[in-house]
Amino acid sequence: MKYLSTLLFILTALHCKAGYKHLLIDDGTDRTMVADTDTLVRKQSVSVGITYGSDVVFFGRTSTQRYPFYTADLIYNSKSGFFAYSSVWKVSGSYPKLDEVDVGGGYVYHLTKRSSGSISYTRFFFNRQAQVIKSAATNDIDFKNSYDWKFIKTSISFDYLFGKTTDIFLTPSISRNIETSFGIFDNKDYLTFNPGVSMIIGTQKFVENYTNADGGLIGMIAPNDHYPNRDLNVLNYSFKLPIAYNRPHYTFEVSPKYSIPVNVDGNIRNRKEFFLNLTFYYLFY
Fold first, then answer.
1. Which of 46, 29, 50 is nearest to 38 (CA)?
2. pTM to 2 decimals?
3. Which helix (H) or strand (E) holds 208?
4. What is the helix (H) or strand (E) element at residue 102, kind and residue range?
5. Which tens digit of pLDDT belongs to each residue from 183-203?
């Protein structure tokens, strides 16, 4: 397999993966915090990348206004399967010079040739003036398993978030990786396409916490009311079509995604939204 086979987000989990962010982690999966297209680099490697995103999304939820963002990422993959990563976030138009710094690590394993998985931990550090919706969460433990059926890949991930509040999320997804068999400009480059659909099931107490911290603008619930945000519900459906141009050491990806939020409680008026991420990664190995 080519080393950068469909590299690109997300960078996620990392950015909440689950989030709409991509990291070039060698897990053979297509999660948010992890690259949106697949890679299987079984060498020791270091990757650096930059991303532009049209809006910050956290497990199917966005803020009351759009927050375009930029990130810079650094990822280390070891031959044994352990990886470590760090991301720096800057939200366009926000007051802080830096809004967020994420650090984490994990382990990738392969049960069979077609079955793979990963477990990781991410710590989020926020500027006090950060205005993104995920400001209520500071820790994420993620567990993901994938199976390649050749014609499609199925994946399911479990996230446990804790910090100012606790939430759980279950994200099943189906994707298909398509790689061109011909070069675009020479015999060392190729295109990859990774269409996919996913669903997020979980709680959303982080919305209550974020709301209260921002002065009760959204999602406020009266003290005696039932707390629907604490129930386990379907939160979001999404459809994506990442397209990447790959060369031996770098990848450029355009990743459009259409998101349909459901079971939106309180006054947080999330709506159907189109997202676009532009990502460039360079791989050293």
1. 29
2. 0.81
3. helix 205-213
4. strand 100-110
5. 899 989 999 999 999 999 998
